[in-house]
Fold these 2 entries.
Entry 1:
Amino acid sequence: MNMIEVKNVSMRFNMAKEKHESLKEYFLAAVQGRLQFEEFYALRDVSFNVEKGDFYGLIGLNGSGKSTLLKIISGVFKPSSGSTVVHGTIAPLIELGAGFDMDLTARENIYLNGTVLGMTPKYIDSKFDEIVEFSELQDFLDVPLKNYSSGMVSRIAFAIATVTKPDVLIADEILSVGDFLFQEKCEKRMRELMSGGTTVILVSHSIEQIERMCNKVTWLEKGRVRMTGDMRTVCDAYKALDQGGAT
Amino acid sequence: MSMLKAYCKDFWRYRFLLQNLIGRDFKLKYRRSVLGVLWSVLNPLLMNVVMVAVFSSILDMRGAGIENFSVYLIIGQLLFSFFSEATSSCMSSMLAAAPLIKKVYIPKYIFPLEKAGFALVNCLFSFIALIIVMIFTGAPLHPTAILAVYPLLTLFVFSLGIGLILAAATVFFRDIIHLWGVFITALMYFSAIFYDPFTMGGSGGAILQRFIGYNPMYWYITAFRAAVLDGELLSWNMIWVCGLCAILALAAGLFVFRKEQDKFVLHI
């Protein structure tokens, strides 16, 4: 069964040569015919399917469109053409700490972030201890988040996002923060979710991590799909590129 | 109609988020201030004292027929500052929500709605100031005061509609923020807050009497005064002008906002 269908997705950004943030500038430029845009395709005609239970990896160099693609799948961007369908609930972990207010305490943020992800306050009440326990931040619950280290923020964020059993978990580079013990804990948690039927999409620059966790991989290059298939084949080809570039 | 239904469904799903966001604004507004929420009451109260002093003794501008000038004035003040706060905070709501909507999908109209809701909560607190002034000046409590709910609710819808338009426009042109500040000050002087155009003499009075009916704020404030201060039923004119302005503003707001919302994330 397909959980996520990405069909011919293209994403075009208009890169204004100069930014017009005021009416006067805009009209002046429009009158003088200077309103020019450079079109930039972050994604071109990308298609793939993620099946239920897949641990799907996205790899590619910087600027290949991985994060843009994740944002399209999670609904933040609307693609310029093409479509994406997601069957079921999504828990997006695109940059940890989205939806946190740095002036509020961790306790208040757990409720705020939980409702951002569509949970009810009652549900958060019942899972509150579990979240706190997972993040190991019992002693800092009533400290404003701005006094946290980035590792501590990511612990809380990961704990909240994975406390539900989402159908799809979208994870962008999240495991690069936190110490190795916490990374192991996160990987374990993601495996648990998967055995419970969650489909995961993971973006990572750590090819070892992709090899360790994913079963299928899509390789993006400059916004196009370079290769898609099972993890071994794609990862070997990707690593060959690495060596090819070095020699 | 299906559009409205989708809005309502979303609204129901995200009601807790709305509640939490309003709670957050509330906490942040009064965090670290000793008197806290009391300022919502004290602020309009002190402003009222200042304005009564200025307009009744120094400038002597108040209309001759206004019986209880303090109450007359504070009603205008409270409703207008609600409108001003709601529209101004709606206006910058999308910019303020940028970190959030760049990373998670949330229906975007939640943010203007939250700001208007927060302004309403604030306004309800500040009605304590109105009650204090009424008690202090010995104004009678009319049973018709309950009718004031109508202008208040329609004003909320009206402000939300205007706020949605402003929020969408501000994403593309930040100039709106500065323009609106000037506009709202001009509108304030034209909303019969500290004068009654129909007891004012001279050419100024004549001009005001002729044109003030085109200002929706005048109608909301007047309807509220009729119910609370004069103990009268709302006239038909008040009912339909307040209602129609609210519906038109909301429809226009939803239309503009919906049309532009997918582009927001690329511009903030």
Note: Chain B has a mean pLDDT of 90.
Entry 2:
Amino acid sequence: MHELSIVTGIIDIALREAEKAHADMIEAIELDIGCLTTIEMTAFDFAWRQAIKGTLLEGCTRIVNRIEGRARCLDCDTVFGLQQVYDACTGCGSHWIAIEEGRQLSVRALTIS
Amino acid sequence: MCATCGCDTVTTKKASRQVVEVERDVLHENNLLAERNRGYFLAKDILAINLVSSPGSGKTTLLERTLTDMKGQCTFAVIEGDQQTTNDADRIHATGTKVTQINTGKGCHLDAHMIHHALEGMRPPGESILFIENVGNLVCPAMFDLGEKQRVVVMSVTEGDDKPLKYPDMFYSSTLCIINKTDLLPYVPFDIEKARSNVHKVKADLPIIELSCLSGEGLNVWYEWLLSK
């Protein structure tokens, strides 16, 4: 249940930004969550609902961009999409790959007023 | 004039909506503290090793053997992470090694902040090896950098040989994989070839050391690896 730590981290970042801008409310928050991170969305949603209670984020719209996994093969240079970090290169079957996308976990933007 | 009641009160509440581009990694705070720990380790010439595994794979036994066998060759210190009890810290203490226990309570992983505080309290000796035994959990600790130089994932032959595929992130983020309890291989259906192949599917260049803390087989390879780091 590390999702609660992650949610708490997101809330801290959002509240700090809102305070900096002297915002009265946070209308929307946009998150990037890569598909290759260990975030289980059901657990994330559950933690989110509980953790935002009584904060400026309560009632805000949450937008989650799920970033698809993408890797480059170190053997044949093919760039391919991957669902799991252990997927082999679709070009040559090699496991010598460099993951380029899908591990992001960040707060992209806030809409405040 | 107010349209509702005709009074002269001005009701222009500001309504300036704005979008703030934050672009901040959620683990930013943890990563900053981890870098701070890393700087501390570097300055004091401490080799910090984060030991991760599922519960019961033999992390503490491996530590006990290592601390006993290598006594005199290196200086050691240990940080023990568990949800409850000081059982593991007591076992390490019995080997004569400096040890600090972190109880995470309900927490499922150690983070850089906890390590930072543990270091303040214990002040590990310089030119030493610091083992950080994480909470037995192959999921949550994967995301949290503690500032370690090496992350060692331990799996044992009494688990499934598909562990690396079930918990790929932990294996992906590790720098060494230990397959423990090899003395039990004749008695369990664990396919070590398959296990090796599964490890390398997740991370093609992850070194593997196979050993048994009971028979001592393979421990010398582990000790050589430690001394080389």
Note: The CA atoms of residues 104 and 111 of chain A lie 21 Å apart.
